[in-house]
Specification:
single chain; mainly alpha; 47% helix
Length: 111
């Protein structure tokens, strides 16, 4: 019943590979594994970003989190796709900023 009252949320843990010490990495991943595998956090999803750090990779395997994890290695995405995504994001965000300052659509970025 409580799950229905709590909206779905995304929790972002950015730069996880920079956590100081293998023990801290292990504690965090162990806690995530305990709560996520027992279904205690159904409305929560986690996005963990990290460089390919051995302690993080090992932690995902040892805790069993790897079974419920979708891994996306950014270095495997073709450069033209990444550049297109960045261009779309910047165009959208800069357009929104221009609109918020009342700047007209006639202003264009240099190519």
């Amino acid at each position: 019943m409580r799950e229905r009252m709590f909206p779905r949320c995304l929790v972002v843990i950015d730069a996880f590979g920079r956590v100081q010490g293998d023990k801290a990495t292990s504690i965090i991943l162990s806690a995530l594994a305990i709560f996520t595998t027992r279904g205690r956090l159904p409305p929560l999803q986690f996005l963990v970003t990290s460089r390919p750090v051995p302690a993080v990779e090992r932690g995902f395997h040892l805790t069993g989190l790897i079974r419920d994890t979708n891994v996306l290695v950014l270095h495997n995405i073709p450069l033209e796709i990444s550049q297109k995504d960045i261009r779309i994001y910047l165009t959208d965000r800069l357009s929104a900023i221009a609109r918020s300052f009342g700047l007209g659509p006639g202003l264009r970025a240099r190519q």
